[in-house]
Design a protein that fits this description.
The protein has helices at 3-23, 25-45, 64-74, 87-95, 109-112, 130-154, 177-208, 210-215, 221-249, 259-284, 287-305, 317-322, 327-341, 345-374; strands at residues 53-59, 79-84, 101-105, 122-125. It is mainly alpha-helical.
Length: 375
């Protein structure tokens, strides 16, 4: 066949897919409604920040020192202090889940504060949620250090500590977990969209027999693949742009890198996701089964093993090795770098290359599997 005939067939296939998308509300819902719902749920509902943590303050003998120290807990957004009369009431509140920690100032707090050994402060933390427990301990230490520094300045001196720590937080100076979660969530959304769009639509055509009808026409496998990929690539790109706009203007996540680098990296990952979806649909040929496999094979690994929420470096070595075959791992690293750090090419290039290799692998597998079906 001539090149002109091939181009005409490809244009006809692309036009057919766009018309099918317009007639099928589920594709529009997956591409545009799902990102909005997921971003709103995760952006507002999921937070790794510990703020307004209920803490019981137990003061055995009130004094000016204990009043000054306890006021430091009221002056911060991290704690929601509750003053209780004794440790018995505080322990009951901790067991009932009414508070997440207890700060106990003993009767000799004011006297020991001016001695060389200092005044001990008893801190009891609910360790059921280990992450919140560690944060509460860190916050209490921070309040204690700040208060001591303030007391030393009031007396006209300086706090005598052997090491002065000057903290500098790069890339996310506000320590907002939303700045970390929303870029990773874009990767999860594009994984779902790319895999589900192609997996469900192509599987539906297998069920109806229209895909087999196309295969007996002069249309080549390459034209057939491109005719399926181009419309859903455009749809996925629109979903990506919608997610980025929501991240920037709704959740105030900064974009410090180049938008065009972000678009290129997203395009590579979208090709990987679409290739995974086509491979799933080619193997299963059933909508229900394709949806189940797509969620299990793409969404769950992307959610758990991509570094979206759980740090990969803290995982067991075997699991860390497994994460190298998860495409979302590389895209999450790309997104978090571009949004929070900028165009760090030592991170961008290796991850982009990994996505490109994965896209090639999936397209080769789809082409070979479809070619076998023609035989």
């Amino acid at each position: 066949m001539t090149r002109g005939g091939s181009t005409m067939r490809l244009r006809a296939l692309v036009r057919k897919e766009f018309l099918q998308i317009l007639r099928d509300p589920s594709s529009i819902a997956i591409a545009f409604v799902m990102p909005i719902v997921l971003l709103l749920l995760f952006g507002y509902g999921v937070s790794l920040d510990a703020k307004n943590v209920p803490v019981a303050l137990v003061i055995d003998q009130p004094s000016a020192d204990t009043a000054s120290f306890s006021s430091a807990f009221y002056a911060t957004d991290y704690f929601k202090p509750i003053t209780l009369r004794n440790m018995q009431h505080a322990e009951i509140a901790l067991l009932a889940g009414e508070v997440d920690g207890i700060v106990h100032l003993r009767a000799d707090f004011g006297r020991d504060l001016r001695h060389a050994g200092g005044a001990p402060v008893q801190v009891i933390v609910n360790g059921v949620n280990a992450n919140t427990g560690r944060l509460v301990l860190g916050y209490v230490n921070g309040v204690w250090s700040t208060w001591l520094q303030h007391q030393a300045e009031m007396r006209g001196g300086t706090l005598d500590v052997p090491v002065q720590v000057e903290q500098r937080v790069w890339f996310n100076s506000e320590l907002r977990s939303r700045n970390f979660l929303v870029p990773g969530l874009i990767a999860i959304i594009m994984t779902l969209i790319g895999a589900l769009l192609t997996a469900l639509v192509v599987a539906r055509e297998w069920e109806r027999g229209t895909f087999e009808a196309l295969m007996v026409t002069p249309v080549s496998i390459t034209e057939l693949m491109l005719g399926k990929m181009i419309p859903y690539f455009v749809l996925g790109t629109g979903s990506m742009l919608l997610s980025v706009v929501m991240a920037l203007y709704l959740f105030d996540v900064p974009l410090r890198g180049s938008f065009w680098v972000l678009w290129l990296g997203s395009s590579l990952f979208l090709l990987v996701a679409l290739g995974m979806g086509m491979l799933i649909s080619t193997v299963t040929k059933n909508q229900f089964l394709a949806a189940q496999v797509a969620i299990i094979v793409t969404f769950l690994p992307a959610f758990l093993l991509s570094g979206f929420i759980f740090e990969i470096a803290s995982m067991p070595t075997v699991v860390q090795i497994i994460t190298h075959i998860i495409p979302a791992r590389y895209f999450v690293a790309l997104l978090q770098t571009l949004f929070l750090a900028g165009d760090v090419w030592s991170v961008i290039l290796p991850n982009a290359l990994a996505l490109l290799l994965m896209a090639i692998v999936f397209f080769v597998l789809v082409w070979r599997k479809s070619r076998k079906r023609l035989e």
